[in-house]
Amino acid sequence: MHDAAFTRIYAEAAIAHAATADTRRARGVERPTALAGIPITIKDNMDVAGEPTAAGSPALAETASPAATDADVVKRLRAAGAIILGKTAMSELAMSSVGLIEATSHLPNPLDPERVPGGSSCGAAVSVAVGAAFAALGTDTGGSVQIPAALCGLAGFKPTASQISREGVVPLSRHLDSVGVIAHSVRCCRMVYEVLAHNPATGVLNPVPRSIKGLRFAVPQNYVLNDLEPTVAAAFERTLSVLSEHGAVLQDIDLPALDRIPDVYQGGGFSMAEIYAWLRSRGLLARSLISSRAFSRIEQGGVLLAADMLDRLSLRASLVESTVQETSRWDALLMPTCPILPPFIRNVADDDGYNRYNMLLMRNTRVANVLDRCAVTLPVDGRDALPVGITLMGLRGQDDALLGIAEAVECLLPGRIASEGLPWNDRIEVRWK
Known about the structure:
Blueprint: E1 6-9, H1 11-27, E2 39-43, H2 58-61, H3 72-79, E3 83-88, H4 122-129, E4 135-140, H5 146-151, E5 155-158, E6 178-183, H6 186-196, E7 216-220, H7 230-245, E8 249-253, H8 256-259, H9 261-264, H10 269-281, H11 292-303, H12 306-327, E9 332-336, H13 351-361, H14 366-370, E10 375-380, E11 388-393, H15 399-410
Helix pairs in contact: 10-11
């Protein structure tokens, strides 16, 4: 499973970096940088100087020129002393919420090998879940960080899109893409986020999250609670009870904007037009290089009328603004990350099953992308051998506040990973066989 989660492994460089970090730390040569010696993986759509950036697609793997420089996020990781372990596998061109489940390349869920891991940042989540990395960078256009984190029992943070540079990252949609973080806890996500963010909060990480007493949470009753699997519904209700018992103020609300989100995606949505144009400009619109499932969606972007695209963008802008007014008095919104548990691989084998589950998995997560919000998914005990993801969605640009709230909530949830005693925070050793 380790090998399947990666497209490239920088074993020799990682071991040398770890040894140097150990030596310099032992000798007190310099004050350790923020992520000194900490192993982190990056998604296959992020540039590394001297290598082609494949983004999970033969169309790029076979034709792309080597990147001239590192992506901005990779530069920031290196400057902070992080060990880049490797590039992680992803769904082709970041276009699937199911994950990497193809005939020629297979990456199952590490919690249940008969189920999907979620995508498109599937390798990123698996690299953390199996203990290969402290944290992983992914990208999120409609839930591609949130979904695999939730399905693999991890914490996942999708920031407001403008908070982290996407320079040097292969785009799917310049309007919806975000760079996010997957880790075992919110605190771990925050450590990485504060290195990557344009204007991170200053100060030392607080090891004792503040109380949630008095925090105000809105619970949308429309759209995001439709057709939940019983296990998911029960886990969500238990979470609400725990928060209420600890003094949080919960209020059920109707948020009309949520019911309009499917309209943004009519005809494939503007993101398909964006990836169609990006590929066409590079001469990469070839059926022979792109899987049939991905190509059928990309084709939708080629026939979308300019007027229709403008209508979708206008609708999205109106939904962003209306929800700012309607939710400004709440500290966060609460919802299940995905309405279902990880689907069985056998149930996505044919196109009908694949398309059904692909859309169902991202139904709730794409809310944060369309509304240009930050969101954190946390694992809670599903009492069915698999954890369930619960999402806290914050206000646009209030990423630091949301992370603080999520860290406090995380400490109260059954089945959480304790953020105290962070793994990897003493001596770092990298071993790979």
